[in-house]
Amino acid sequence: MEASFKSRALEVNLAQTKHEQAELPSEHKWFVSLSSSYWGINKRTEELFLEYNHPHPNYDYIIENLHTISLTDLWLYSSIDESEKALLFLVGIFEDLANRNLSDKQREQLTKTLFKFIDRLLNEGKYPGQVIKRCLQFIERGMEEHEEIYLRNSGYFKKYLARAAAVPDFNETVCRLTKAVLIKNCVFWSETTGAEEWFNSKAHLFQPVHRKKIKLIGKDFFDKLFCRIDNSQSWEEIESNLFFNDIANHFRHFSDEFNLSIEKVYYLLYILHLPGMVQLKKHLLYDLNRLLKTALDELNQEEVCHFIDMLFTLFKELKD
Fold first, then answer.
1. pLDDT mean across residues, the chain
2. Cα distance between residue 77 and residue 13, in whole Å
3. What's the pLDDT score for residue 301?
4. Which residue in 62, 153, 289, 307 is a FRET match for 160, CA 20 to 30 A apart?
5. At residue 98, does pLDDT exceed 90?
6. What is the CA radius of gyration of the chain?
7. Residue 11 pLDDT more than 60?
């Protein structure tokens, strides 16, 4: 009863504070005033900073609206006399949010918005160099503090930093950061897959010919990939390497190397447990469901019983 009372009291308190109009700091008022001639932009900017300064801010709302203000409304802040100050202010908001207690999903969305902000600024053609440099510093810090988010989304480097790489003032930094995330990717996949060890433990389930093929996702594959990344110098060479999702798709499509559907099923059960394949889990389950029917059609009744027993064993390993 006491817990229920506290819960209701908390709800009432939160509801009350939600309607309190916080006094905006002077720099926030200044930024809001920049859009005073544009009602729609001004309204959403004011609402964002009211939420931003709330005792219990809704970070999903803030990051979603920051996306709109920093991208859709960027033309305004790029065209005014105080453009550099306004753009540096926006970068400061990104930096401040990055230091708050965000969920991984929120942090990922914030990071993607910053990458898009860099690309959009360069596409506008008019940008202060200091703004881009601050954004690249943001990325470098993020790679150190939240490495996994940057690894899983390393495709952002290729997709959104190409324009920055084409500018001499930013080329060295962009190439260095992209090369660093590629090397970290390679190390991550190499240390979390163990394809050859897995195959050796399950060799009795496969035709002998596949023992050599497994090297296409084993140590040799990652050694060659590492050397290729390490030897890449220009942006064109660097961005031609395999990023996180490229490696994930390489592992997914490697199932085509197996001749029998039953072998493909066993392989899919192996990659389902790999941490790097989480983003492709739905696709893998779809592949598995499709192949199970084909595999059962290829087997006689005795083989079906053995196959089902083996599936239960492999599923148990997957669960463990």
1. 89
2. 37
3. 65
4. 62
5. yes
6. 26
7. no
Rounded alpha-carbon distances, angstroms, from residue 153 to 108, 202, 262: 8, 32, 33
Span 214-228, pLDDT tens digits:
999 999 999 999 999
How far apart CA 289 and CA 293 sit, in angstroms, is 7
Instruction: Report the alpha-carbon distance of residue 223 to residue 218 in Å, rounded.
Output: 9
- On the 0-12 / 13-18 / 19+ scale of CB atoms within 10 A, 85 is middle
Asked if residue 135 lies in contact with residue 117, where contact means CB atoms within 8 angstroms, the answer is yes
Q: What is the mean pLDDT of residues 261-289?
A: 91
- pLDDT at residue 284, rounded to an integer: 93
Tokens of 110: 């914030």
Six token digits for residue 107? 């942090």
Three-state helix/strand/coil letters over the chain: CHHHHHHHHHHHHHHHHHCCCCCCCHHHHHHHHCCCCCHHHHHHHHHHHHHHCCCCCCHHHHHHHHHHHHHHCHHHHHHCCCHHHHHHHHHHHHHHHHCCCCCHHHHHHHHHHHHHHHHHHHHHCCCCHHHHHHHHHHHHHHHHHCHHHHHHCCHHHHHHCHHHHCCHHHHHHHHHHHHHHHHHHHHHHHHHHCHHHHHHHCHHHCCCCHHHHHHHHCHHHHHHHHHHHHHCCCHHHHHCCCCHHHHHHHHHHHHHHCCCHHHHHHHHHHHCCCHHHHHHHHHHHHHHHHHHHHHHHHCCHHHHHHHHHHHHHHHHHHHC
CB-CB contact of 263 with 205 (8 Å): yes
> Residue 14 pLDDT more than 50?
no
Whole-angstrom CA distances from 79 to 38, 68, 124 are 14, 17, 10
pLDDT, tens digit, 9 for 90 and up, residues 38-61: 999 999 999 999 999 999 999 999
CA distance 142 to 149: 9
Range with lowest mean pLDDT among 17-21, 39-43, 99-103, 149-153? 17-21
